[in-house]
Amino acid sequence: MTKTRCVIVGASAAGVSAALQMRRMDFPGTITLVDTDPRLPYERPPLSKALLEDGASALVPIQPAEAYRDLDIELRLGERVTEVDPARLTVRLGSGDILKSGRLVLATGVRARRLALEGGDVDNVLSLRDADDARRIGAQLAGGGPLVIVGAGFVGLEVAAVARTRGIDVTIVEAQPHPLVHALGPDVAELLTDLHQGHGVRLLSGVTVSAFSGPAGRVEEVWLSDGRRLPAAVVVVGIGVEPRHELARSAIVDTDHYGIPVNEFGQTSRAWIYATGDVASQRHPNLPQRGRIEHWDAALRHGAAVGSTLAGEPVRYTDAPYAWTDQYGATLQLIGRGRPTDDLVLRDGATPGRFLAFWMRHGRIGAVAGMDASREIGVVKRLMAAGVPVDGEQLARPDTDLRGLLKKRRAADGPVPVGASAAP
Ligand SMILES: Cc1cc2nc3c(=O)[nH]c(=O)nc-3n(C[C@H](O)[C@H](O)[C@H](O)COP(=O)(O)OP(=O)(O)OC[C@H]3O[C@@H](n4cnc5c(N)ncnc54)[C@H](O)[C@@H]3O)c2cc1C
């Protein structure tokens, strides 16, 4: 009897997580991970925190090579899946090989959006998505600044922090009034503005880039919508991402504006095809509507849920989305998503380098953001998961013992019966 083969397209956070989980759950078939990147699958988050100055040595592998061998996970690296045949249940590789695939997982992620401006397609205008991008940016920055970053998203801000730490002159151009304002709201986003300005970043908000100029093959000036011109040795564009969902289209799987729509188990509009990670357009209890969750932790958990489902034990990914970003030696952590209708509570004593903000919803914490507040975030995560009712005024006071709120709740709930778990 031939074994079922599961082909996973994309060997990054979500794809590798799905494969590992399938093996943990004793999936009996063959698992093949395919990725265009020839390197052993590596983590993306470290790329923007260090910027590779010395080539591949700074890469952090997701798993050592032996792990794939020991778990009998076949790696086809440096190969692109070019087509999916929905009638024959096969995928075609760039090499011409055709793989029969009883189950297919699309974990193809996203690509960086480009600025549609003449002259922007040159060596010193870069975006950051993979190790090659990080190496190119690192090499360009080795020559010094000025560095102009277009877009104050997570990646743009991290690149700014790394560059400033190396003493490079940095200007960020952001169309919105504050960095990450959609994720954090204006009050918290202003603290981030202060953090970067405090480290000498020039943050120009409410403006866009209108043109590039320079000699052939190089940008030396960035022109802004308000008429200003900025000198630039390097330009990093971080204006968001778009889904890589071409394969889904070739398989006549539904796609939408966000990516590949999936049900609560990661299944697409074709029963044998699943999608996971950044490319998946999912309904999630923490999202007001269907959408992508572009965070490492979500890619891992969603991938693992899809892996379990494929191994015969359907699992939903419902954890509150968690994200972090490292800037100037401090870590900003976010759990859940704030909504415009939430009441924002900023803990008294907030400074750009250390703060805690809560988005209150119906007397409970709907989302939280904390800078340099890992211990508190750990407790808040448990308060959120347990749905503990809390008072916003209490949360605002820095002397309120968050752990005490959790203990009080436990005491009110009474002893946990034998055999039951106290955790939600
Ligand atoms: C620079 C950077 C820093 C980040 N930092 C953080 C952070 O600090 N905190 C955080 O929470 N999140 C962070 N993220 C986000 C996080 O890394 C992503 O959410 C995560 O990598 C998504 O994983 P994924 O597997 O869905 O997709 P991706 O990591 O995008 O991987 C998709 C893979 O699919 C492959 N692929 C695509 N099409 C094909 C094809 N046709 N054939 C073969 N292979 C294909 C690609 O080569 C790629 O390897 C960061 C992302 C980047 C880029």
Task: List its traits.
alpha/beta; FAD/NAD(P)-binding domain; Enolase-like, domain 1; 3 domains; 5-stranded parallel sheet; 27% helix; 25% strand; disordered C terminus; binds flavin-adenine dinucleotide
What can you tell me about this protein's structure?
By secondary structure, the chain is of the alpha/beta class. It folds into three domains: 5-111 and 241-310, FAD/NAD(P)-binding domain (3-Layer(bba) Sandwich), CATH 3.50.50.60; 114-237, FAD/NAD(P)-binding domain (3-Layer(bba) Sandwich); 329-413, FAD/NAD-linked reductase, C-terminal dimerisation domain (Enolase-like, domain 1, 2-Layer Sandwich), CATH 3.30.390.30. 27% of the residues lie in helices and 25% in strands. It has helices spanning 13-24, 45-50, 65-70, 131-141, 154-165, 181-198, 246-250, 296-310, 374-385, 392-396, 402-413; strands at residues 5-9, 30-35, 73-77, 81-85, 90-93, 98-100, 103-106, 110-112, 125-126, 147-150, 170-174, 202-205, 209-213, 221-224, 229-231, 234-237, 241-243, 260-261, 273-275, 280-281, 322-327, 330-335, 343-346, 355-361, 364-371. The strands form seven sheets. It has a five-stranded parallel beta sheet with strand order 3-2-1-7-19. The protein has a five-stranded parallel beta sheet with strand order 9-16-10-11-12, with helices on one face. β14 and β15 (229-231) form a beta hairpin. α1 (13-24) packs parallel to α8 and α9 (374-385) runs parallel beside α11 (402-413). Bound molecules: flavin-adenine dinucleotide (FAD).
